[in-house]
Structure to design on (257 residues):
């Protein structure tokens, strides 16, 4: 009888604790996330210097760049989400940071995750493209590693995209949409942090605003630009940069992210 009472008491406490936790847990289906994208420009330029070891101009350019520019090029983005739709866009729509623009493009990306469709506005030098295609399909491997980002408990996942780009992402299941910055998606919750360790780029959430549901005017796809698919854009840029060597390949990769 005593063992039975102990078992009953344990189950009662467990149920009460579970209910208390669920009352305090936050599960969001709409809101806005502020992301900070950082590109390690010093590391990128040094990698390009290795492609042209006999060119003294590259070394001179790097020295001049360091005198007038910080190591990390930083761009702020916002991600508005509601239901299964997201809109990722730069906070500052201008092209002020021209010196690193090709390595940190200010893309605007609309994602309809329920229908697996995306519309992206991408500016490549002076041309503006409207990329209409399916959302990126990523084969994630979820790990046991965790960290806190912008006050949310996140779990790590790893993946390989575009055949060679290693991705580390951190997502939270407290935000119930499987979206993320740029074209990263497909995890059981919102991606709040992304790092491309071998490509020297990171995206991390710095602030998450919880408010009312977004209006129909807030989450809409971009409309201006030359309409292409991802494959068509890739072929256009690759052809335009066929004589650029390793530097062109690096820019192409950044545009296609």
């Amino acid at each position: 009888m005593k063992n039975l009472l102990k078992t009953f008491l344990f189950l009662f406490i467990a149920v009460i604790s579970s209910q208390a936790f669920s009352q305090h847990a936050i599960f969001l289906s709409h809101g806005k996330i502020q992301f900070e994208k950082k590109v390690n420009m010093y590391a990128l330029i040094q990698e390009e210097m290795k492609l042209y070891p006999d060119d003294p101009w590259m070394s001179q350019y790097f020295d001049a760049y360091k005198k007038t520019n910080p190591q990390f090029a930083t761009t702020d983005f916002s991600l508005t989400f509601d239901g299964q739709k997201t809109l990722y866009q730069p906070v500052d729509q201008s092209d002020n940071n021209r010196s690193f623009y090709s390595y940190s493009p200010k893309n605007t990306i609309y994602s309809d995750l329920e229908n697996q469709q995306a519309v992206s506005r991408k500016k490549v030098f002076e041309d503006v493209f409207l990329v209409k295609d399916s959302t990126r399909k990523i084969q994630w491997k979820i790990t046991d590693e965790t960290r806190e980002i912008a006050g949310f408990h996140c779990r790590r996942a790893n993946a390989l995209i575009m055949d060679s780009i290693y991705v580390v992402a951190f997502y939270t299941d407290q935000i119930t949409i499987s979206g993320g910055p740029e074209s990263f998606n497909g995890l059981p919750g919102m991606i709040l942090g992304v790092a491309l360790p071998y490509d020297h780029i990171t995206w991390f959430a710095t602030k998450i605003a919880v408010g009312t549901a977004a209006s129909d005017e807030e989450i809409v796809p971009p409309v201006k630009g030359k309409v292409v698919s991802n494959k068509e854009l890739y072929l256009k840029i690759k052809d335009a940069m066929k004589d650029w060597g390793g530097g062109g390949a690096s820019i192409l990769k950044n545009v296609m992210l």
Notes: The chain has five helices and twelve strands. The first strand starts at residue 30 and ends at 40.
